[in-house]
Amino acid sequence: MKPGRKILVAAVAALLLVSLFYFPLRRKFSLHEGALINSGQSKRNAVIFFVNQDGKIVGRDTEIVSGATVLDDIKSLITQESLARAGGLLNAIPVGTAVRNVFIDENKCVYIDFERSIIDRHVGGTEGESLTLEALKRTMAENFPELDSMKLLVEGKELASLAGHISTRLKLKVK
Amino acid sequence: MEMKIKILLLLLVPVLLFPDHLKVMKVIIDAGHGGYDGGAVSDYGIREKDVTLEMALLLKKHIEGATEPPITAILTRSEDKFVPLIERVGLANKSEGDLFISLHMNASPTKRDSGFEVYFYDSTGDAETAAVAKRENEQDGSVENKDRNNPLFILWDLAQNEFSKESSGASDIIQSALDGALNRNADTTLKLRDRGVKQANFLVLNGMKMPSVLLEMGFLTNKNDEEKFKKQEFKERYAATIADAVREIRQKFDKKSAAGR
Asked: What ipTM was estimated for this complex?
């Protein structure tokens, strides 16, 4: 093999190797330490969660335009999950739920601060609460695998429970 | 005279060594929600807080009627008022209840979800669950040290699990009794789906110093379930079945208690 061809083959192999490792990583949201800056892609694939007619949580693929940080992406996904759905799917997160703020602590726990709408518009019941919590957990686990847990707040304060049943005082494991 | 005192003390030894705390003599009935907290609401405006109160009053009537030896039923609320969950736990513990039953009506985004389910406390979450319990107790001034490795804290954690087995057993008995009364007889109008026994981290069961269960009696968001809870006959039958289950729980606990001696 001519030296020029050898270099070409080596270059192509190196490129393939880099692609194999680099692109799968790029597809995930990245939690850069401290800044949580998104890695520059304008559009991201994600999975959001709803309830089907049989009361089971189901995921649906979606695409979002990334915000400046991962925190913006989390807010964007929850907002999508609280929009009224057509096509037989129901909302696990009450329609019209608004997120005030999102932040992440050093223990990889995401704090999601909701407006009161998440309580006021909640269907209630242990089952209704379980479905909301499950949808939120799976949204975090599926789209932000770097996170370990989540904590729910309402208007900046600790939320005891969504509708008077299951405790949300604890950090809820998302893995 | 001295001999009589010695005999009396000897008789007291087993009582002191084996406190009969499992004997169901006092049942705390908790009507979920109340006051400004209406709980779930059906499409036709039936509110969870009203159904739970009505069922709690019926259950008290059925538990206290025709039971020998008598069982006392204490309500956490007997009117339409808001009682914070921590106060319900406090009332049950201060009353030294032998069994706690919290009554609720379920709800779901889908109208297909239906039936009853019985829950008992799930203490998984460990340190954090205990931290919550500790914090609640700190409000009562009963735990002073905030260190998680504190022996008091560890004891509290153990206490959380102490009644887990009894709570599980009580849940099974209530679930089985309801399934039998509603689903295994000729009257098909009573049928209510049995969703089984489950566990969850309920605020109202956290810190309970007695076997405790939470019963989701049916779905207000399901038309068939809702219709049933509009009928007095059905509600009477339902409450009487839970009362029967309570008597069975007492028998089971009594036998277990006697076997331990």
From this structure: 0.80
